[in-house]
Amino acid sequence: MSLTKEERGTLFQFLWLYLGSSFTLFAIIAYLFYQNELHYFYDITQNKMQLESSQIASKITHAHMKHKSFSFKKTIENSNYRIGFFDKDKNPIASNISNNSNSIKLTDNSTFGHLGVDYIIIEKEGINSFIDRLRYKIIGILFFIYLIIGIIGYFLAKLFIKPIQLKRIKLDNFIKDSTHELNTPVTALLLSVNSPMLQSPRNLERIRLSAMRISEIHKDLSYLLLDASNNQKKIKETIELNKIIEKKLVYLKALAEKKKITIKVTYNKKLYFKIDEESFTRLINNLISNAIKYNTINGEVNIIVDENSIIIQDTGIGIAKKEQEEIYKRFYRATNQVGGFGLGLNIVYNIVKRYGIKIEMNSELNKGTIFRLGF
Q1: 304 is a domain residue
Q2: Per-residue pLDDT, 62
Q3: d(CA 178, CA 113)
């Protein structure tokens, strides 16, 4: 599914927001980690240097008190650090201190002048190289994490935009289907109005059916899309449903005859229910018109009205099992074999839900569909 310009804009906005906030968060974490590692390195290094200087100072003190020899040169050579021994005036006795700024220095005065040494200075070199390695390591890890987050963010953005994209596709299909659905009666009207036999019964019947078809489409659209807020305010009264069915069949039988479909109606009981007339008209009109529309040539539609139920059965193309859970969604169409624009069964679902009418559907491909309404 290709993205529109607006959808791409929404996708990039989501990505920038997601990646920007993620980058800020992980940059702060990386900085805090860097500071923590740096302080830990300085602390552990100084502790080791302090331990080294304490051991050397102890050896110097012991040698002086026991009148033993102590080799400054050998101590310097055997140490992992640079070491300097200084007198009380800070003159070097022995030293390989480099005075390099890229180092850590520690001064120890615990010798107290033994063997002439008042100060021991220990120097650790290579600090900048450690800091550089730490920086590169953190930047590398940050880049890797950010790359993973970017990939995850892209797929999350695609998932985020997908419902919007599907809605847009459904809306595009609705516009195309409704345009096509209106085209047939409008074309028939224009041809009939411009016919030289305008007053002929057949031509007048064609005009009547086309006008009624446009009217039904308009009523469905108005009921679902324009009057949704007013549906709750409609007057509900107990009405005889048989009469409304009979009235609608005058128009619906004419549509069925064009497709050579036989409609059989059985009224076992008079059925009464508290509902506004327009809602029930939309309900029954959509179910019966679908039974006609999705039927086969020379097919049948059987309508049975009982004490607490209405059954509408057709011998049409049926609905596949995998499609049956989706048929009540707005703009959804299970097949493109015939016209329609995916509003009829959504209107049916909204009405039965509002009035507490139980609806059951059984369908089998190429055999037909049965809708059962329980009142």
Answers
A1: yes
A2: 92
A3: 103
